[in-house]
């Protein structure tokens, strides 16, 4: 019903050499300052030709990126308002050891939630004892891809979202690592519909956009993610 998993795999192979961080918009200046002072990183040699900042990208570009010296790996900063705008994120996560994480975030080293390395399934959880890294749980990632698909469908940078939804379905959900009951509405219903495959994707996309208030003349997005209520717990 949507682009095959081969597309997603090809996408991963050609675009995965990046360490990506989502930060609160107000922390952008601090984030850039921290990265530019690390001796292992070097400024982008040429923003005009660098693939990371290319207008030909099929994913939303980072707001800032920097290169790991003697490597093809880049480190990118994405603004929360452009990626995870539907959920709370604040400066307290800058010192995560002192923070009780909301239930939709998890430490990247949390072996009780994240799987170990599995063949063909990525690196698995981080080794414990390293610098604390916070990652969204898989259902939040799925919600982000669905919202980005609805927001950017029809644009070049929107091409990646549907293969990534397929990737999560096939590699995460089918392996039992997606808590679909944690998905908020209307995303849960739409994801179920997509899995069942009874509807053309174009129609499904239009209905998703309408449900999220993204169609022209349908007003501002009015539904409130249930995630927001978890802030401050
Ligand atoms: Zn670059």
Radius of gyration of CA atoms, rounded to a whole number = 18 Å
Shape: globular
Q: Per DSSP, what share of the residues sits in E-state strands of 2 or more residues?
A: 5-15%
Give the proportion of residues in helices: 25-40%
Order of helices and strands: HEHEEEHEEHHHH
Quick structural gist:
This protein is an alpha+beta fold.
Keywords:
233 residues; alpha+beta; 4-stranded mixed β-sheet; two-stranded antiparallel ribbon; 7 helices; globular; disordered N terminus; binds zinc ion
Describe the protein's architecture and organization:
It is a single chain. The chain is 31% helix and 11% strand. It contains seven helices and six strands, in the order αβαβββαββαααα. Strands 1-4-3-2 form a four-stranded mixed sheet. By secondary structure, the protein is α+β, with helices and mostly antiparallel strands. The structure holds zinc ion. Zinc ion binds next to strand 3.
Helices and strands in order, then pairings?
Elements: H1 5-15, E1 18-23, H2 28-36, E2 41-42, E3 64-68, E4 74-79, H3 80-83, E5 105-107, E6 134-136, H4 138-152, H5 161-173, H6 187-196, H7 201-211
Parallel strand pairs: 1-4
Antiparallel strand pairs: 2-3, 3-4, 5-6
Bound molecules: zinc ion.
């Amino acid at each position: 019903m949507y682009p095959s998993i081969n597309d997603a795999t090809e996408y991963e192979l050609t675009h995965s050499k990046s360490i990506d961080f989502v930060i609160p918009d107000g922390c952008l200046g601090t984030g850039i300052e921290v990265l530019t002072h690390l001796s292992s990183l070097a400024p982008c040699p040429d923003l005009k030709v660098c693939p990371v900042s290319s207008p030909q990208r099929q994913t939303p570009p980072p707001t800032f990126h920097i290169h790991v010296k003697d490597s093809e790996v880049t480190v990118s900063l994405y603004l929360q308002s452009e990626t995870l705008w539907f959920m709370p994120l604040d400066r307290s996560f800058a010192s995560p050891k002192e923070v009780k994480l909301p239930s939709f975030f998890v430490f990247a080293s949390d072996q009780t939630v994240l799987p170990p390395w599995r063949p063909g399934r990525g690196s698995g959880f981080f080794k414990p004892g390293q610098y604390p890294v916070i990652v969204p749980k898989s259902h939040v990632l799925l919600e982000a891809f669905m919202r980005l698909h609805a927001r950017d469908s029809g644009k070049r940078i929107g091409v990646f979202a549907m293969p990534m939804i397929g990737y999560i379905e096939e590699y995460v959900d089918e392996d039992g690592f997606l808590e679909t009951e944690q998905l908020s509405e209307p995303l849960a219903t739409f994801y179920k519909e997509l899995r069942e495959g009874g509807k053309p994707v174009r129609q499904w996309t239009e209905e998703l956009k309408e449900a999220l208030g993204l169609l022209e003349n349908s007003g501002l997005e009015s539904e409130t993610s249930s995630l927001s209520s978890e802030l401050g717990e």
